[in-house]
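Listing S7. Sequence submitted for prediction.
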Amino acid sequence: MKSFIKNYCYFFFFTVFIAFTIFIGYGTFAKPHPEEVYNPKPEVNDPPKFESINVDFPVKEGNLPKIDTDEPRTCTRVVVSINFLVTDPDEDWVTITADIDGDDKFDDFKKKTKSGKVVTLKRTFDTEGEYWIKYRACDIKGLCTSVLKFKIKSILCPPKIVEFATATERIGVGDEVSMSLRSWDAQSDKVRYEIDWDDDGVFEHVTAYYPPQKKVKVKHAFNEPGAHVISARSCDKFDGCSDVQRRTVNVKVE
């Protein structure tokens, strides 16, 4: 009997020891390592921010004569690209809206994008005038930037003669002189060439309409000797005309 009680006590204490060891071990190993604890990034209740606005204007220095390029300008009927870069402190999706027609409804452009992505607005202006571009960005929580704006001036852009050459500067009386003309046009409108053979302000010869980049050849014969000044200009179908360019041809008696 004593042996049974003794063995029972050994078994009891051994069982308690094993249970205690398992409990302590589980408590030790079940605790997550401090570096593994998930700490979510706290939300920042700040609105999005425009990092940059870039506008690609087709009217650049050297394209057109007598046009000031110091202020934002575009030609009528030419696409203007406006590039927005906006970020959000919580890296939320943001929606960029814009008002272009001046009704303050911000319904002329709407684009949802990820924070840090560039969004492009493309627009043409069919008539001359000044246009205020107003824009803002809002995140999914409804936080918005202030309304920002800038002005674009739309102007009529006439063609420009980029090539006016004569095959020779000296010919005989009655001989034909050959001339080649080529233009540049912001809207890529077809152009006609008006030519004044004696520089008296009357354009006696008018060609058909051609693509502006196409080289057009014109011939003419002079029946009187002397220095003849030939004037030429290119005009589009809206009667926008380039500056007059002149070339001199010397006609000699052979």
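Caption to Listing S7: primary sequence and predicted structure tokens for the chain studied. DSSP finds one helix and 16 strands in the chain. The CA atoms of residues 231 and 246 lie 4 Å apart.
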